[in-house]
Amino acid sequence: MDRDIRRPSWRRRSGGDGAALAEGSRRVLTRQSTVHRSRSRSPRAGTPSSARARRRALPPLPVQGEEEFSIEVHRLITEQKEKIRGSFEKQAKTVETQYAIAKSMAVNKMRLEKIKARQEVMNQIEADVRPSLAKESQNAAFITKLIVQGMLMLLENEVVVRCRQADAKLVKGCLDAAQTEYTNHIKTETGASKTCTLSIDTLFLREECLGGVFLSCFGGKITIDNTVDIRLRLTMEQAKPAIRALLFPNA
């Protein structure tokens, strides 16, 4: 009797109840197997397939937002390009300006050096001529011509002649000859008879002067500087182009 109580109850049931119980057990097992297979097939978290799945699950960006983003990126790139281009052009212009200034300064320096060298040559020529002119100023005929030239420019009746103190005797001896030559020249050129009285000035020229004469009339109001120094200076100025052409033909 006790053995019958301990036995499972399904053994005591009839044959129809046993079939129903077997069918229910089969269904439960089938459902558990299906759940286990679905879990094994589902992707694990953190795998590439799960990331792709999440990306696919994200909603797509709006088309207008993508266009605005592209426009903003293009604007920023264009602004940076313009800034870089402007900075480069500014630096290039600065370098070109500095180069032009340096080139101009170098050219001007060379030109000034060339002018200085030419002027030194001209000064040297003048210095070389001075000794020969100083000797020529002791020639009575040369002094007479200087006096006559001054008289013809003044065309006055009385003229005062100034000279160096060392040349006073020489100049005084030329006065008569100068007066005669002046009268003859006026007679020849105009047919008129005109005389001029010459006298030696009480004042004298500087001793460092090369010689020559300084004529005046009306108390010194009208003067003619016909000294050798002035004549040399005028000659150098007037003949400077010809002298430069001879000395610097390729300049």
Written account of the structure:
With 251 residues, the protein is an alpha+beta fold. Helix content is 70%, strand content 8%. The protein has ten helices and four strands, in the order ααααααβααβββαα. Strands 2-1-3-4 form a four-stranded mixed sheet. β3 and β4 form a beta hairpin. α6 packs across α8. The chain is rod-shaped and about 175 Å long. The N and C termini lie far apart (152 Å). The N terminus is likely disordered.
Total DSSP helices: 10
The helix-and-strand class reads alpha+beta
Q: What's the helix-strand series?
A: HHHHHHEHHEEEHH
What is the terminal separation in angstroms? 152 Å
Q: Helix amount, in percent?
A: 55-70%
- Low-confidence segments, given as residue ranges, are 1-16, 38-43
**Proportion of strand residues:** 5-15%
Strand order of the largest sheet: 2-1-3-4
Radius of gyration: 63 Å
Biggest pleated-sheet summary: 4 strands, mixed
Shape: rod-shaped
**Mean pLDDT across all residues, rounded?**
81
Annotation, overall tally of beta strands: 4
Short description, anyone?
It is built from 10 helices and 4 strands.
Give a quick set of tags describing it:
single chain; 251 residues; alpha+beta; four-stranded mixed sheet; 10 helices; rod-shaped; disordered N terminus
